[in-house]
Design a protein that fits this description.
Layout lengths: L1 H12 L6 E3 L4 E3 L7 E4 L3 E7 L2 E5 L13 E5 L1 H18 L10 E7 L4 H13 L4 E2 L12 E3 L4 H11 L6 E3 L16 E3 L4 H15 L3 E7 L2 H16 L3 E8 L5 H13 L4 E5 L2 H13 L6 E4 L15 H4 L3 E5 L7 H6 L10 H11 L8 E3 L2 E3 L24 H20 L21 H9 L2 E3 L5 E3 L8 E10 L5 E12 L3 E6 L13
Helix pairs in contact: 2-12, 3-4, 5-6, 7-8, 12-13
């Protein structure tokens, strides 16, 4: 696999990949690029991709010298918690004598910095390995990672699955929802523990039908997530003879003029219900304009990508966004995670630089002498590594509303259960040619994909985990309502559930008495 993969990547993606050539009978790494990461050794390695930073800053290109690596900015505590949840799940599995006995799992986790190029680079590094050279030209043994948890976004997942799917590398995303990823011909080894947007759209239309809201506006982000969801939403609206007052796409470049034009459309429309399919970062410029122009009197319907985003839960947005209804992936509880998060310590291993970056951002210090900027703010104190995490109060230590992190947990366990079932196979009774079993010493990725498709287990929280023929998870959502809290910010309350079963279809259950409305009547 490695030779074919290296040559293919060298020919097709030599500008961004860790390609290799033959040199004295050895696969030689052509170059390296810097990635923020965390590592733990093991008999078998799982890969992970997480959005630990919000932005990527690329260097100026002079075309005269080799460019500096991109720089990631604005650390995301919630996403780092998701990365640590993967580490926790692997630690928990390694301590469980009933699951994967005599096998120790390890991990390689990378930060994608919410940028397609960075995510793709990280995924190729996971699949190809990062050793300087590789002399085993027979490519025996299992690959550098046997499966990848991530990417959380749809567009990178499409790109990564299009390439790694050629080699049947199993990928289990915890947050990529584009319905396009359900295409088994295009993405034969892609799975996810979050429902497809096809389910999300049906759930949101159910809410509209419940309240009799037939005249609504639509706003969506200019990416695969927003575009596919908007298309499917319009089809569902037509199916039930509901009407769209307007349909507006959020600009890629946050252009103020475009944002103001969209605001004008919303204000001029008689529709008072606005449905938004967007990530929180895409939507933020529009919501800033909502505050600036003091636009109230709208009932916002939030898609799962921003329904729980902390950035909107401040007093600044309260007068405009209270009463918002949204849907979110199923909340879960993970026993022992909070204590695990508090036990984290910075690492001296240079490969684990993600831990050092987290520590510096959490405590506003630097492990390097001299001035340094952390998230744009100048810091002068030196980190000791003995700072106390229990004294902090950030999304990193908040485990009260685990949603994406819970999906990460389920994704890790899905891969672990698939690997466990693979090694339990009895020779002569296996599922492969001649009733053979897979060989853990010479594991092929497509063999693990077979077992991943058959995964069927229940989490400690009591949720059933399995995949349908398209690799999609069972569809169940919480219906959320944004309500004022005593400190003037926004609190989120669960006011219902949407459950989609094969026999029952989409079933919505709502507690109307628990809903807070931002106006006197919901009509």
């Amino acid at each position: 696999m490695c030779i074919t993969l290296y040559i293919f990547l060298f020919l097709s993606f030599n500008c961004i990949s860790a390609a290799s050539i033959f040199r004295s009978g050895t696969c030689q790494l052509q170059g390296r690029f810097k990635l923020n990461g965390m590592y733990q050794d093991g008999d078998v390695i799982l890969g992970g991709l997480f959005q630990v930073h919000f932005f990527t800053v690329f260097p100026d290109l002079s075309f005269k010298t080799k460019p500096e690596p991109p720089h990631c900015e604005k650390f995301d505590m919630e996403s780092f918690q998701e990365a640590q949840t993967m580490a926790f799940a692997i630690d928990e599995i390694n301590k469980n004598p009933s699951l994967l006995p005599n096998i120790t799992l390890g991990y390689h986790l990378y930060d994608n910095c919410v940028r397609l190029g960075m995510a793709f680079r990280a995924a190729i590094s996971l699949a190809s390995g990062t050793d300087e050279s590789f002399s085993n030209l027979n490519c025996t043994g299992h690959p550098p990672v046997i499966g990848i948890v991530g990417d959380p976004s749809s567009t990178p997942s499409i790109a990564i699955s299009s390439v790694l799917g050629l080699f049947r590398v199993p990928i289990v995303s915890y947050a990529a929802t584009c319905s396009c990823l359900s295409d088994r011909k295009k993405y034969p080894s892609f799975f996810r523990t979050i429902p497809s947007d096809a389910f999300q759209v049906r759930a949101m239309v159910q809410i509209l039908r419940y309240f009799g809201w037939t005249w609504v506006g639509l706003v969506y982000s200019d990416d695969d997530y927003g575009i596919y969801a908007a298309q499917y939403f319009q089809q569902e609206m037509q199916l039930f003879e509901h009407c769209l007052a307007f349909s507006e796409i959020l600009p890629h470049d946050n252009n103020r003029r475009d944002i103001q034009r969209i605001m004008g459309v919303i204000q001029a429309s008689t529709a008072r219900v606005v449905v938004v399919f967007s990530t929180s970062s895409f939507l933020l410029p529009l919501m800033d304009e909502v505050v600036l122009q003091n636009m109230t009197g709208r009932q916002w319907i939030a898609s799962e990508a921003w329904a729980t985003a902390p950035v909107y839960h401040t007093p600044r947005f309260l007068p405009f966004l209270r009463g918002t209804l949204g849907i979110a992936v199923r909340r879960g509880e993970i026993q022992g995670l909070h204590d695990f998060l508090l036990r984290l310590c910075p690492s001296n291993d240079p490969r684990n630089n993600m831990l050092r970056i987290f520590w510096e951002n959490m405590f506003g210090c630097s492990f390097e002498m001299g001035d340094k900027e952390t998230d744009g703010e100048q810091v002068k104190k030196v980190c000791t590594g003995q700072e106390d995490l229990s004294t902090t109060n950030t999304p990193y230590t908040d485990v009260s509303g685990l949603r994406s992190a819970y999906n990460v947990y389920k994704a890790v366990y899905a891969l672990a259960h698939a690997l466990h079932d693979l090694i339990q196979c009895e020779e002569g009774r296996g599922p492969f040619s001649g009733n053979s079993c897979a060989d853990i010493i010479n594991l092929k990725p497509w063999q693990l994909v077979y077992y991943l498709q058959e995964v069927n287990f229940t989490t400690g929280f009591g949720d059933h985990v399995s995949f349908d023929k398209n690799g999609d998870a069972l569809a169940i959502y919480d219906v959320l309502n944004w309500q004022p809290s005593s400190d003037g910010s926004i609190s989120i309350y669960t006011v219902g559930v949407v459950n989609e079963g094969v026999a029952t279809g989409t079933v919505l259950t709502l507690d109307e008495e628990a809903i807070y409305w931002n106006f006197e009547t919901k009509k």
